[in-house]
Specification:
By secondary structure, the protein is an alpha/beta fold. 44% of the residues lie in helices and 17% in strands. An 8-stranded mixed sheet has the order 7-6-8-9-10-11-13-12, with helices on both faces. Helix 10 crosses helix 15, helix 12 crosses helix 15 and helix 13 packs across helix 14.
Length: 659
Amino acid sequence: MKELVSWKDSRRRKPLLLTGARQVGKTWLLKEFGQGYFENVAYVNFDKNLRMTDIFEGSLSSERLLPVLQAESGERIEPGKTLLILDEIQEVPRAIQSLKYFYEECPKLAVAAAGSSLGIELHRGLSGERRISFPVGKVSFKHLLPLSFREFLLALGKEQFCSMIDSLKWEELSAFHDELIELVRIYIYIGGMPDVVMEYVETGDFAEVRRIQNDLLASYKADFSKYAEPGLAERVRLIWEAIPQNLAQENKKFIFKRIKSGARAREFEEGLQWLEDTSLVRKIKRVNAPGLPLSAYQDDTVFKVFCHDVGLLGAMSNLNIRTIIEGDRAFTEFKGALGEQLAFQEMTTCGVANLFYYKNESTRSEIDFLTDELDGFNGIVPIEIKYGTNLRAKSLSAYVKKNAPETAIRVSSAPHGHDGAIEDIPFYALSAFLKLGSASRITDLPEIAERREKEMPESSDGVVDAIVSLLKGSPLSRRNLARLLADRRGIEIALPVLDRALARMKKAGIIGATGYGISSKWELLPKGEQNAYAFIEGEELDTGYRSTSRFGLLASVSDESKGPLEGMNLMNFWFMDSQEWADLVDSLRIPEDEEDEPQDLVAETGIPRDIGPEKAVFDNFGDIVQLVDIDDSLDTLNELLSQAYPDYGYRIVRGGLRL
């Protein structure tokens, strides 16, 4: 409603075109808005209205149309006092064109049109034969989504819960956690379509809820035939019906052959795009590396497909009402598809537009969602969806260990908590947490809010001396460095900025890394330090990689997120610790992609699944897979590099080099 009020008060207001899926609540919202903020509402419905079809075949001038619309609505239309609602406007294509003339000839009249995304997108050019001249630049667009979980609570009269969730009062919420999770389970079944929600609020009858959902799904299929061209409609229907099956797989990547035997992407791509254009589905594309910006790493050919409403997805999947009363089954059913759909829907509702997912092909681990455009959060935020209260998240832990994000989010039906960089967020609070961003943590720590008024450098200049001073005591991780810079020096610094400072100091030989992965720490290198290791190419070319540890050096070189220096011939390899190796062994024994064949790495390599904490596995794209011990000599490691890369002369040298 706030956005509609802002539209009303805009000095350069244009006619509003409110789109959304069928029965998402467009008409109700506009009528409520009109009754609350205007003296009167003139409502005209174009659905099956032959009079309006004939009227709009003539001149589209506002002078001609307003008397007719006034007679049709039975309400006096006065600019500045009346809200004119043109409902189901997609049924009369020339009525969409008329919005241009209302804008140019009668700018003081508030005109709000509502139409299904199916019909509106059709007339914007989705179908070449039936498109019209669309009033580009003369119309304001707003898109209405299904009711969020918060709006569902409001419909149930649970305003007190909304207040606690909005302010993230975790202690208060903990007392009502079980009740809120029970409401989340119900919401998964009900969804956010207004008529469905209203039926549940008024009767509590789940059978009647499902009947309304099925009627709505039937109307969607009827619209496919109505709006899509004949050759396309059947393909659209097949894709729509295949969405639950794709999401119910362990690997939720959308695979076209799941639509029907022998299906190919080129046969169904147009139909899938048609569904996405009409807002019934949304594709979440995979990124091949967690780099900034994420859009630069997206793979347009690999994606998941989500429905616009979790309740309708459950109806399409024949979700049984027993899932509501049987503990975590609402989250675990269909391989967790409903929990992932719920999280997607909550993120979309609160305005998170830039969503992707990530799969590491070497370890086979997958992060359900990544985003790099969250206010209040720095860099890329990984979001993992857990099914029920089981918080074991190997993929997320491995991602955090390798990429060290400032914040990682694990969503589940467990209460709120912290696990290092990982923030455990219950389903019911996901939207509020994303909206509040880092402010949620600042609220609990007022002293941090005060420090934000101090130095917040955008570049790494000027922080080197402070870092040197802090490292004089003992080695520190980058996260602890950031914390101490804030606590002791009053310097709030984003982790990417700190990383640039550390990289410069490392290149200058001031500091080095000890250990690797989650245990990696930075320490000062004394002048004349002879125990530092450097990675070189050939006889003299220093690649820029240095560390106080051989393991740390190999881990740094193999870190594809950092990448080799420009012009360097190094072919990336994988250097896996015990957990990463165990995850890879397990994932290949039970492949996530049905197109892959199971592999037994233990049998193929002779390396056991559990290798111990002081060992790692060197893997050169499968050509050489060798167990490495932390006590292996420099000669042993260099012989391994020589075997893996005989043409480049890669080797580790100890001491004496300065960059």
